[in-house]
From TrEMBL:
InterPro entries recorded: EmrE-like, Small_drug/metabolite_transptr, Small_multidrug_res
Protein name per the record: Guanidinium exporter
Lineage of producing organism: Bacteria, Pseudomonadati, Pseudomonadota, Alphaproteobacteria, Hyphomicrobiales
One Pfam match: Multi_Drug_Res
PANTHER family tied to this protein: GUANIDINIUM EXPORTER (PTHR30561:SF0), SMR FAMILY PROTON-DEPENDENT DRUG EFFLUX TRANSPORTER SUGE (PTHR30561)
Compartments reported by the entry: Cell membrane
One term of GO molecular function: transmembrane transporter activity
Family annotation (Gene3D superfamilies): 1.10.3730.20
BP GO terms, sorted: xenobiotic detoxification by transmembrane export across the plasma membrane
GO cellular component, one term: plasma membrane
Keywords: Cell membrane, Membrane, Transmembrane, Transmembrane helix, Transport
Length: 104
């Protein structure tokens, strides 16, 4: 169950990270509320996952999910470049997440 909590914590991390872009410096109320709510949910789920997972593993996976998700959304939503090197680096992060799951 902890891995499920951690997975969704990572998804909510993506939500608040992309939400920061749309808050316009916290000047737009709805995106700001949604971003803060995503932060609370993400940290709450991470806390639940930490009940049984090692902190180093959980934190690395949580930030890895957020990093991969934000990089993908940056490419898809924000028109950031999708170079071969960038995609390869994202792939390495995914390999690290899978590796941590396999050994934890």
């Amino acid at each position: 169950m902890s891995w499920i909590f951690l997975f969704f914590a990572g998804l909510f991390e993506i939500g608040w990270a992309i939400g920061l872009k749309y808050t316009d410096g916290f000047s737009k109320p709805l995106p700001t509320v949604l971003t803060v709510a995503s932060m609370v949910v993400s940290l709450g789920l991470l806390g639940l996952a930490l009940k049984t997972l090692p902190v180093g593993t959980a934190y690395a996976v949580w930030t890895g999910i957020g990093t991969v998700g934000m990089a993908a959304l940056g490419i898809w939503l924000l028109g950031e470049p999708a170079s071969v090197v960038r995609l390869a680096c994202i792939g390495l992060i995914v390999c690290g997440i899978v590796g941590l799951k396999l050994v934890a």
